[in-house]
Amino acid sequence: MEVNDALIRQLGTLARLDINPAESEEIRQDLQRMITFVEKLAELDTANVKPLLHMTADTNVLRNDEVLPGISREEGLKNAPAHTGEYFSVPKVIKK
Q: Which NCBIfam families has this protein been placed in (predicted)?
């Protein structure tokens, strides 16, 4: 695949980048090296290679969910700096 000015302009537009002519040549060389590398990878024979689903054979060790006793509303509001009888009172953050 050939990297040309049209491709660089298109990529710049898609990425919303303003690419000047000085940067364009450097980007062209970088893209060409990346494409060459990917094309080289495509030459590998992967017919007998199993897909890698997980990096290791380890599995997640999860604990069982246990219902623990909660606290009452009064206990929850006990140390609140401001509250009504049932809810925390907080400063208004949305101004209309």
A: gatC
Q: For the packed helices 5-14 and 21-42, what is the interaxial angle rounded to 10 degrees?
A: 100
Rounded Cα distance between 69 and 75, Å, is: 13
Q: What is the DSSP letter of 16?
A: T
What pTM was estimated for this model as a whole?
0.48
**pLDDT score of 95:** 81
Cβ distance 32 to 3 under 8 Å?
A: yes
- Give the contacts of 11 (CB within 8 A, at least 6 positions apart): 17, 27, 31
Quick: pLDDT tens for 36-56: 999 998 898 988 988 888 788
Question: Helix %, strand %, coil % for the chain, to 5?
Answer: 40, 0, 60
For the chain, what's the residue count?
A: 96
